[in-house]
TrEMBL record:
Membrane-crossing segments per the record: 6-27
Pfam families documented for this protein: YtxH (PF12732)
UniProt keyword annotation of Transmembrane present: yes
Highest taxon in the source lineage: Bacteria
Biological source species: Euzebyella saccharophila
Residue runs in coiled coils: 39-66
Keyword line: Coiled coil, Membrane, Transmembrane, Transmembrane helix
UniProt name for this protein: YtxH domain-containing protein
Length: 109
């Protein structure tokens, strides 16, 4: 979850809590009934927040796992590519060495 998504989620939850609280406080109910409503809404908001945090954590875990798999694949591809290039370099060097040995043998005759 990006930082902007987190900020938006926090703003929405804050607005919902403030709106619910203001609505309850201005409702024409007795104190005991109002306190029960506040407690009920607080518990509902807590459950909703817990659920959203759990979903965000699951999404973050999923994204991290996908990035890990992607990184591992790219690393494997890079190592494989480097191995082929190393083989090419070794073959070229071996060919040059063989050519030098032939020239050296001719010069020593």
């Amino acid at each position: 979850m990006s930082n902007n998504s987190g900020n938006v989620l926090l703003a929405i939850l804050t607005g919902a809590i403030i709106g619910a609280g203001a609505g309850i406080l201005y409702a024409p109910d007795k104190g005991e009934k109002t306190r029960k409503k506040i407690k009920k809404n607080a518990n509902k908001t807590k459950e909703d927040l817990t659920k959203r945090i759990s979903q965000a954590a699951d999404e973050l875990t999923k994204t991290a796992e996908e990035k890990k798999v992607d990184f591992e694949q790219k690393l494997e591809d890079t190592i494989s590519n480097m191995s082929y290039k190393a083989d090419d370099i070794i073959m070229t060097l071996e060919k040059k060495l063989e050519d030098l040995r032939k020239k050296n043998a001719q010069l020593q005759k």
